[in-house]
Amino acid sequence: MRKLLADTLAAGGVEVVGTATNGDEALGVCQRLHPDVLTLDLEMPGLDGIGVLRTLRDAASPIPVVVVSSFSSAAGVRAVDALAEGAVELVVKPVNGDPADRFADELLEKVSAAAGTVPRHLRPAAHPAPVARVPATTTRRMVVVACSTGGPRALAELLPMLPQELGSGMLIVQHMPPGFTASLAQRLDRASRLSVREAADGDLPGPGQALVAPGGKHLRLETNGRVRLTDEAEVGGLRPRADLTIADVARVHGPRVLLVVLTGMGRDGLEGASAVRTAGGRVLVEAESTCTVYGMPRAVAEARLADAEVPLDRLAAAIAEAAG
Asked: Which domains, ranges and CATH numbers included, belong to the chain?
């Protein structure tokens, strides 16, 4: 696996400066060579991947980490824990029969994204700027959250700050490989006052509930407001695609929609934001100062579709006010 990763990265133009056989060795290599990105397995002899992440997080110059993990129920839990501990992205190890070019493209894309991230505490201090306040409402709105790179950590910070009942329900679209979203939902549920679980066909979102789109499925909404999961083709390489979910919610709920776009690479959520604004709904985006990757929020903000840009630590209050 180390050779496959090194060869794949090198073929994609990435300079591989070192490899390591276990967690302790990885920390030593990082200390000597100061790489821009570390790819990290979670199951290793001695210090495991979570231990490496925690050590790197406390270092003076943390290194962005892309977890490369096989999938199983237990591995899914560990991978989600790793993302919450600060890993930037997750790539699933290929198995026999998986297209080699797909794995290579995903690995290179996510390593490149990780190389462009800067840990929050190392960013230049931002000058305080006024945050446009979205007026509080007595109208209950359906909340849709869209996120990608850095999303699990942002969700782990955001959801515990939300009230037990929120608007008319919440749908979360986090770009994540199939099989891992159930573990993400369970982790969020343990930390939140909202009831959080992976969405299933026929679900009807409610005020005390947050439903997470399953990896590998598009989350659509029927005209009666119930969830329909589909195997439609990927859109822009993504399934789930937040734009599809958001457009359905805007069609069903009209002006009673609140879209929240968190950290993430790419432009997913931009078309959805346009649909929400056309329907008379509201749009909040995470401020650049707290984003792991200011891609998805930037696309919405630059299109002048956001009602406000809000730092993550102030976002829960803004959502509660705007959602009713």
From this structure: 2-117 (3.40.50.2300), 142-323 (3.40.50.180)
